[in-house]
Amino acid sequence: MVTFTRHTDGQTIVANDINELQVGLESVPVRSPIETTLYVRDDFLNGSSGDLGWTTTGGTTSIPVLGGHPGSIRRNTGTVSGTVASSRLSTPVAPADTFDLRFNMFLTQNDANTVCRMGLSGDATINAATEGIWIEKLAADTSWFGVVRVGGASTRTAALGAVSAGTWINGRVRRVNDTTVAFSLDGGTTDVTSTATAPTSGIQPFVHVTTTTTVSKDFVLDWFDMLITGLTR
Fold first, then answer.
1. Which of 69, 84, 139, 210 is the most exposed place for a label (fewest CB within 10 A)?
2. Do residues 188 and 141 share a domain?
3. Rounded CA gap, 179 and 202, in Å?
4. How far apart are the first and last CA of the chain?
5. 29, exposed or middle or buried, with CB in 10 Å at 0-12, 13-18, 19+?
6. What is the pLDDT of residues 74-127, one digit of tens each?
């Protein structure tokens, strides 16, 4: 028997066996059938490629030492205007699937020359892809927004919250149902939704930052996870 504490509320959780957790008086499954559910996570303890094989393009990568955030990676644009420093997974996600992605990260700068996005993109290496579902801060923005982008046209949500340089956020992008996607900065406690028509082609998990001036910009990514449910395979 193994006992540990759930980070979200501090509640004690007891694992009775490999298939079940005891949460208070409630038993919950810990291993879902692979035929119907996909779950992956990355703490980047292996560096910029992580355990999932992330590809980095543009700019530079460094490994900061941050208390309470082991395995973080920093992506920096350098000082060439227009550089996109990206981290992405190669395997695309089908936009119609019931996906749920979270990114624990912070943006180092909050100014009128910084662009940052996280979520799902048709091409993480450019600013911006023609297809995607993501959270973004554009150069003139002082808040984060949810975006559904199809054919080069973006539909934005209301503001999710203010951009605060150096402040960790738990950016979450997920499909709620067939017609709705949701965005949040706190892991889903406060969702802002969109019913805009979503892309139909595959889109990849990603984070990127762009500088629109000759001063470098960067983000730090601590961890990522992705859950896809309702699969038939």
1. 139
2. yes
3. 17
4. 32
5. exposed
6. 999 999 999 999 999 999 999 999 999 999 999 999 999 999 999 999 999 999
**6 and 59 housed in the same domain:** no
* Same domain assignment for residues 57 and 4: no
What residue numbers bound the domain in which 12 lies?
1-31
Same-domain check for residues 110 and 82:
yes
Q: How far is the C-alpha of 165 from the C-alpha of 40, rounded, in Å?
A: 28
d(CA 45, CA 28): 28
Same domain, 73 and 51: yes
Contact 191, 71 (CB under 8 A): no
Indicate the burial class of 122 (C-beta count within 10 angstroms; 0-12, 13-18, 19 or more).
buried
In this structure, are 93 and 7 located in the same domain?
Answer: no
8-50 per-position pLDDT tens digit: 455 544 444 444 444 444 444 556 788 999 999 999 999 899 9
3-state secondary structure of 158: strand
9 and 114: one domain?
Answer: no
